[in-house]
Amino acid sequence: MKFGIYAPNFGNTFGNPKLITTLAIEAEKSGWDGFFLWDHIINTEGFPDTVDPFIALTSVAENTENIHIGTSVTPVTRRRPWKLARETVTLDILSEGRLILGIGLGGPSEFSLMNEETDLRILAEMADEHQEILNGLWSGEDFSYAGKYYKIDKVKFLPRPVQRPRIKIWGAGTWPKKGPFRRAAKLDGVIPLSVNYTNPLKPDDYRNMIEYMKKHGLRHPYDVVEISFDATKSDDKKRAIQDFQDAGVNWWLELVSDWNGSYDKIKDVIMQGPSQI
Asked: How far is CA 206 from CA 38, 100, 111, 183, 246, in A?
């Protein structure tokens, strides 16, 4: 099991890119395997200070050596695919191949604030095209594309990312909705969430999910992520981690945020390391 920090890109603490870098350095020193930021343009729920996750992770990449970094998750249709390709290649090179790109459709409410497309069916179609374009541009070979939403004349994106054959991608979705998991089965990992936050996913949900994805192309090695929203130590939590691991989970992400308390409390949780759980 690998353990990572999972944090919003907004708030009194995580709305400050310098503090993000400091906490990521502490996470690496304390034995965490990953450091992942959400990807929002704006927050309207009490914590307005918001940072761009890719620029913040650039600083993290330059100030760490081993910890995996990434977004969880980026609503890909909010960015032009060639712009996202260029950003991620640059960050993968800076981090020497440590980048993991989490992708999803995003929340329609945030899209509506910017008068963007909110139809989930259309967003899913656009996301599929994004994925094809990212793979093509990351290849470093001549690439053309003619889709419903995006078109590219022959181009060659260089340099290539450090990772081969591509930058690692995790696909996000809400189980038991099936569409996101058919798409994620062809990627490198999955970040599932429950449709109902008051009824979180259980180990049996993961077993069913993995069996479904195997029918749609899932091949090992493959990352299966569980997100914990309770950064506290308890025997029950240790048993839960083992139960999820037995069900196929191999990444455990701990949410830390201003909802946990002050910067000092967040730093304390991180400095305790994965041993806390």
From this structure: 22, 21, 30, 16, 10
Among 147-156, 227-236, 244-253, where is mean pLDDT lowest? 227-236
Residues found in the chain: 277
pTM here is 0.95
Count: domains in the chain: 1
DSSP E strands: which ranges in 166-217? 168-175, 189-194
| Two tokens, residue 187 | 């990627």
* Per-residue CA distances from 270 to 93, 200, 236 (Å): 26, 23, 20
Sign of CA dihedral 198, 203, 206, 207: negative
Q: CA-based angle 207:176:35, to the nearest 5?
A: 70
Domain containing 239 equals 2-276
| Mean pLDDT value across residues 155-175 | 96
Instruction: List beta partners, residue 155.
Output: 143
C-alpha pair distances (Å), 27 with each of 30, 181, 229, 255: 5, 30, 17, 13
Dmax over CA atoms of the chain, in Å, equals 57
CA atoms within 13 A on the CB side of 7: 36
Whole-number Cα distances in Å, 45 to 15, 50, 62, 223, 259: 13, 12, 31, 31, 11
191 Cα distance to chain centroid: 7
Range with the lowest mean pLDDT among 11-20, 42-51, 173-182, 247-256? 42-51
- Give Cα separations from 106 to 41, 113, 187, 219 (angstroms): 11, 13, 18, 26
CATH code: domain of residue 29: 3.20.20.30
Summarize pLDDT for 206-241 with one digit per residue, the tens: 999 999 999 999 988 999 999 998 755 566 888 999
